[in-house]
Amino acid sequence: LQEKAARVGFDWSEAAPILDKIEEEIGELREALTTGDAAPIKDEFGDMLFAVVNLGRHLKLDSEAALSGTNEKFRSRFHYVEQALAASGGSLEKATLDEMEALWQQAKSAK
């Protein structure tokens, strides 16, 4: 869909305005969240995702591959947190958010 629009010139020539559009969509999502109404929240969330994927396309990135890589990175870091807690006799259920965040930061700097 985005590629078809780009082929006929309905596209940005650089990344900066796409980033502005993403920020605009985030603002609209924030506003929709204040309503608590699921329909506009869903719409604005979709608009935000569409804009982010458009940036990926503009940068010649495979958005699906980028997300897959991020999912794997998250899996690895979360596993680190879980293992570190278990090694100290703790668990995810018993740990505080601060404890998990500290271990998350350790996992980030370990890679």
Which structural category do the helix and sheet elements fall into? mainly alpha
End-to-end gap: 37 Å
The top-level CATH class of the largest domain is Mainly Alpha
CATH architecture of the largest domain: Orthogonal Bundle
Strand content: under 5%
Share of helical residues: over 70%
> How would you name the CATH homologous superfamily of the largest domain?
MazG-like
Q: Supply the number of structural domains.
A: 2
Radius of gyration: 19 Å
SSE arrangement, N to C: HHHHH
| Major sheet | none
Q: Would you count the extended β strands for me?
A: 0
Broad shape: extended
Low-confidence stretches: none
The number of distinct helices, counting runs of at least 4 residues, comes to 5
- CATH topology (level 3) name of the largest domain: Helix Hairpins
What integer is the average pLDDT? Answer: 91
Q: What do you see in this structure?
A:
The chain is mainly alpha-helical. It has two domains: 1-61, Helix Hairpins, CATH 1.10.287; 63-111. The chain is built from five helices and no strands. The chain has helices at 2-7, 15-35, 38-58, 63-87, 97-110. Helix 4 (63-87) crosses helix 5. The radius of gyration is 19 Å and the shape is extended. The mean pLDDT is 91.
